[in-house]
Amino acid sequence: KRRGTSGNDIIRPARKNGPMQPSVYGEEYLHGIAGVQRRSLHIPAALHRKLSILAGASRNGKVTLEGFINHLVSRHLEEYRETTDMILEESLPGPVITARPP
Question: Annotated region Disordered: where (predicted)?
């Protein structure tokens, strides 16, 4: 089943051991996602509500939605570091510069 953007999809990573091949990563996370070239980010209402509830459930209640999403994306990039670095190296000229620790 392809991923939609309704916010109701269940994400089940296909990762096992070792780096995921870029083609598998692309199929799992990048295909079937509609997008437009712009800097702002649209989050479907159902997904926004779920993320807001989760962010609000923090211990001190002071986690912003932006901070929560940034943390999720950072964790995702770290978990799939080898794969995302391969994709970036194929797509960008020059060495890949990351803000992540080695």
Answer: 1-23
